[in-house]
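hey m, so remember when u said the tokens were messed up on ur end? i reran from scratch. heres the input so u can diff it against urs
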Amino acid sequence: MPTPKQMEKLAAVAARRPGPSTAAPDAPLLTEYWESVLKDPRADETGAQKRQRRLSEIQRNVLRISCRRCERTVEIQKADAVRLYGENAVWKDVAQRLLDNTCQQRTGRHEEDGCWPAFETP
């Protein structure tokens, strides 16, 4: 716990620091911002295209998939996924396997068993 003198010193330093910008919420965004957004290669991809990417094409280190049915989330390191499924494996197939391997919703009926993947942006 800081002493009162240390707390006063921290408060003085915080008061001198410039705060976050106070731009109005309806202020137009800078042109540079929109240019960078549109130049991003992910801007042209649809959700289906993202799901069909191979593991070797995904830039993230951690891959995450969640289930719409049981609200469970599974994460795996990209290196582990490549080691287990190969770098040419499709993300959609890997994600479904990850959920199915740990599915907790088993009814015994094929139509009802398994998780329903909700793909997050990899």
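this time it looks ok to me. DSSP finds five helices and three strands in the chain. if urs says something different then somethings off w ur setup not the seq
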